[in-house]
Amino acid sequence: MKRLLYTTGKRLKTLEYWLTARMVIGILTLLRKLPPEKALDLAEKVARKLGPKVGRHRLAVDNLRHAYPEKSEAELQTIALDMWGNMARLAAEYVFLDKLFDFDPEAETPGRVEVEGVEIFKRLRDEKDVPHIFFTGHLGNFEFLPIAAARFELATTSLFRPPNNPYVADYILKTRSSAMGGLVPSQAGAALQLARVLDDGGNIGVLVDQKFRKGVKTHFFGRECKTNPLLPKLARQYGCDVYPARCKRLPGGRYRLIVEDKITLPTQADGMIDIEASAQLLNDVVERWVREDPGQWMWFHKRWEM
C-alpha cells in the first residue's frame, strides 16, 4: 500500500510539473510573438499585480523588514513590487536573449547593453591559458554576463541551479546554452566539472547569493545564513584571481554590466585562503550591490533558512 501511494504521488507530481511547464513555456512562446519592449513591459505589469497575491510576497516583505528595519511599510512594499517587476522581466528575457544583447566591443555608439570595465575584460583576454573566476548575484539580468565575456573571447562556464521543475529546467538550459558558454548544473559532480575547466586554463562564473544547506556559516544583511564554500575552495586550489561582476537595470529598458577589478580573498596565518572569511567577503560584496538597487534582487528567496 505504501509503495502504491508513493508511486501515485510521484506520478501526480510529475503531471503537475508537466502541466506547469506547458503553461510557462506557452506564455513565453506567446510573448515571443510581441516586440521585446512590449513583451517585457507586459510581463512586468502583470507581475506587479499578481506578485502581492502569492505566498512568496509575504516572505519577501518579511525579509525586507529584517534587512531595512528603518524603512516604512510603504517603502518595503514598493521594493517588493520592483522585485516582482524585475523577476518577470528576467523570465521573459530568456526568449529574447538573441535580440536584447546588442553589445559590440568595437561599436562607437552604445546600444541597449553597455559594459563598465571593458579594460578588465581586455586584460583578461590577453592572459592566455590563465584561469579566472567571476562571481555575481541574482541582480538585473545576470544571464548577460557570460554572453558579454564571450564577446571578449573569454568563454566562461557557469554554475547554475536548475529549477525544481525538470521540464522548465530543460527549457531554460536549452535557451541558455544557445546564447552563452558552457553550463554546469549545481548537483553532484559540479565541483569536479568546474575544476577541470580551471585546470585547462578556462574561466568559470558562479552565483554566490543562494542558500546552501551544507555551506559555511556567514552573515548577510546582519542575519546568519549558510554560503557555498565552492568558490574560495577552487580559488585556493588553483590560485586564480576572482572578479566581481553584476548586471544593473537602467531606465528605458537598458542594461549596464559592471565588471570590478579582482578582489583579494582573506588568508590564514599560513597564507592559505580562509574559506569562511572569503565566503563572508562574497556576501559583503553582494550586499553592497543589493543595497544600491534593492528592487533588483530576489527577496522571496529563502536565503536565511538554516
TrEMBL record:
Transmembrane segments: none
InterPro entries assigned: LipA_acyltrans
UniProt superkingdom: Bacteria
Keyword Ribosomal protein among UniProt keywords: no
One MF term in the entry's GO annotations: acyltransferase activity
Principal cellular location given in the protein's record: membrane
Keywords: Acyltransferase, Cell inner membrane, Cell membrane, Membrane, Transferase
Location within or outside the cell: Cell inner membrane
Keyword Cell inner membrane: yes
Protein name per Swiss-Prot or TrEMBL: Lipid A biosynthesis lauroyl acyltransferase
Species of origin: Nitratireductor kimnyeongensis
Phylogenetic placement of the source organism: Bacteria, Pseudomonadati, Pseudomonadota, Alphaproteobacteria, Hyphomicrobiales
